[in-house]
Amino acid sequence: MKPSMSLTGEHEGHKVAAVFETESDANGTAKALCDETSLTNDQVSVLSPADRHQGKGLEPEDQGIWQTLVRSHVGLSVGGAVSGFIVYVILNALGIGFISQNTVVSASALTALGLMLGLLLAGGITIRPDHTPYLMKAQSALRKGHYVLAIHAESTQQIQEAKSLLSARNVKTVQTL
Fold first, then answer.
1. What pLDDT does 93 receive?
2. CA angle at residue 168 from 166 to 173, to 5 degrees?
3. Which residues on neighbouring strands pair with residue 15, listed in sequence order?
4. How far apart are CA 176 and CA 154, in angstroms?
5. Which of 129, 137, 155, 168 fits a 20 to 30 Å CA distance from 7?
6. Dist CA 161 CA 151 (whole Å)
7. Beta-carbon contacts of residue 13 (< 8 Å; ≥ 6 apart)
């Protein structure tokens, strides 16, 4: 999906983290990923326990997060409001008594309910709960003195390529959705 069509503002929305005991293993695997898959050097990074900006290596798209917040809230609130109004139209067409007798109130209430549900869903998309296991495992490994290979893929195809190479090397991974 084009970034302009997506609810998220991230260009590299798929992430994988792999943990290594040594920096040389992590760097060797990073080089292999760039050589043997469609991933580029910009999409693969090795984080060490001594890095000062580990968060930037794990979640490099600060601007994308803000775009996700705006896009999801605007898009889903409008979509929710329209859906709520459509529910009102359907219920009114079915001749439901309360809806037919209180058209303004019921149209307003159902539209507002749809709007609120859309905003709740947008909040869920913005906080990215699928990123929590990825971030927790990576940060825990870095605190323990291990090295983390962070992969920021643009597509599910790139994720599959990376995961197959990593599994062939018996490397355990954690990924976002």
1. 95
2. 30
3. 152
4. 12
5. 137
6. 11
7. 6, 154, 176
Token pair 């906080």 is found at 127
pLDDT at 114 (0 to 100) = 97
Query: Roughly how many angstroms between the first and final C-alpha of the chain, as a whole number?
Result: 15
Tell me the CA distances in angstroms from 67 to 70, 100, 163, one per residue in order. 5, 40, 28
Kindly give the interhelix angle for 23-36 and 156-168, rounded to the nearest 10 degrees. Answer: 130
CA 116 to chain centre: 22
- H-run or E-run covering 14: strand 14-20
Whether 5 shows a pLDDT value over 80: the answer reads no
- Mean of the pLDDT values across residues 65-83? 91
**What is the predicted pLDDT for the residue at 52?**
80
Per-residue pLDDT tens for 105-153?
999 999 999 999 999 999 988 887 777 788 888 888 888 999 998 888 8
**Which pLDDT score is estimated for 101?**
93
DSSP string, 34-100: HHHSS--GGGEEEE-TT-S-HHHHHS--HHHHHHHHHHHHHHHHHHHHHHHHHHHHHHHHTT-HHHH
Q: How far apart are CA 126 and CA 69, in angstroms?
A: 5
Q: Is the pLDDT of residue 44 over 50?
A: yes
